[in-house]
Amino acid sequence: MLGVNLRPAVARVWAPVVRTLLRAGVTADTVTLLGTVGAVASAVFLIGNGVLFWGAFAVTVFVLLDMLDGALARARGGGSVFGAVLDSTGDRAADAAIFAALAWWFSGGGDNRMVVWLALTCLVLGVLTSYVKARAEGMGLTCDVGLVERTERLILVLVGTGFLGLGIPYALQVCLWVLLVGSTITVGQRFVEVHRQSQGRTLP
């Protein structure tokens, strides 16, 4: 839900960049691909090798392009169906790369099985959060409720990773525990909402 409130402010920041990209003929899909590849590469090669602060910083920069591609698409008159699917797929790939990179590092050089478990559990819950919404919308329902959506998920995991990289002990563990609880609540909220909307409806 935080992402909805942040988008207008981010759009104002990106406005000059959007105008420059429009003049240069850059498409929203190009920005989406750049953001996805950059976020995945930063997670794999930096966070996955224990460079936690700069990894979190780099991923954050590329994730911000996720809001730029939407602004660029709107400036061009509206996004395409392909662009929407590409954007959603890129989001899932970037999210998975972050949590997988954490699990990789802390199962080896980072040597912390608890963080591995937390990262993998948060990854699964993130997938479920997105899937319930997508499946509900595919059935003609709406499912925009939830305590923790993608913006909150990224803030928690990247802040925790960055702070741990700066030497703040247990920062990542605390953030992942908060994320785990919040994501569990969100999945429950979405099932309750789907159940409420689906009363009296049957499959064709």
TrEMBL record:
Cofactor (UniProt): Mg(2+)
Keywords associated with the record: Cell membrane, Lipid biosynthesis, Lipid metabolism, Magnesium, Membrane, Metal-binding, Phospholipid biosynthesis, Phospholipid metabolism, Transferase, Transmembrane, Transmembrane helix
An example Gene Ontology molecular-function term: magnesium ion binding
PROSITE patterns: CDP_ALCOHOL_P_TRANSF (PS00379)
Main enzyme class: transferase
EC number: 2.7.8.-
Keyword Metal-binding assigned: yes
Chief site of localization: membrane
Active-site residue numbers: D91
Membrane topology value: Multi-pass membrane protein
UniProt remark on cofactor binding: Contains a di-nuclear catalytic Mg(2+) center.
UniProt pathway: Lipid metabolism; Phospholipid metabolism; phosphatidylinositol phosphate biosynthesis
Positions with a binding annotation for Mg(2+) 2: D66, D87, D91
Any one cellular-component term (Gene Ontology): plasma membrane
Subcellular location per the Swiss-Prot or TrEMBL entry: Cell membrane
Binding residues for Mg(2+) 1: D66, D69, D87
Reactions this protein catalyses: a CDP-1,2-diacyl-sn-glycerol + 1D-myo-inositol 3-phosphate = a 1,2-diacyl-sn-glycero-3-phospho-(1D-myo-inositol-3-phosphate) + CMP + H(+); 1,2-di-(9Z-octadecenoyl)-sn-glycero-3-cytidine-5'-diphosphate + 1D-myo-inositol 3-phosphate = 1,2-di-(9Z-octadecenoyl)-sn-glycero-3-phospho-(1D-myo-inositol-3-phosphate) + CMP + H(+)
Bilayer-crossing regions: 51-68, 114-134, 154-180
GO BP annotation list: phospholipid biosynthetic process
InterPro entries: CDP-OH_P_trans (IPR000462), CDP-OH_PTrfase_TM_dom (IPR043130), CDP_ALCOHOL_P_TRANSF_CS (IPR048254), PIP_synthase_PgsA1 (IPR044268)
Family: Belongs to the CDP-alcohol phosphatidyltransferase class-I family.
Primary role: Catalyzes the conjugation of the 1'-hydroxyl group of D-myo-inositol-3-phosphate (also named L-myo-inositol-1-phosphate) with a lipid tail of cytidine diphosphate diacylglycerol (CDP-DAG), forming phosphatidylinositol phosphate (PIP) and CMP. PIP is a precursor of phosphatidylinositol (PI) which is an essential lipid required for cell wall formation.
SUBUNIT field: Homodimer.
Name recorded for this polypeptide: Phosphatidylinositol phosphate synthase
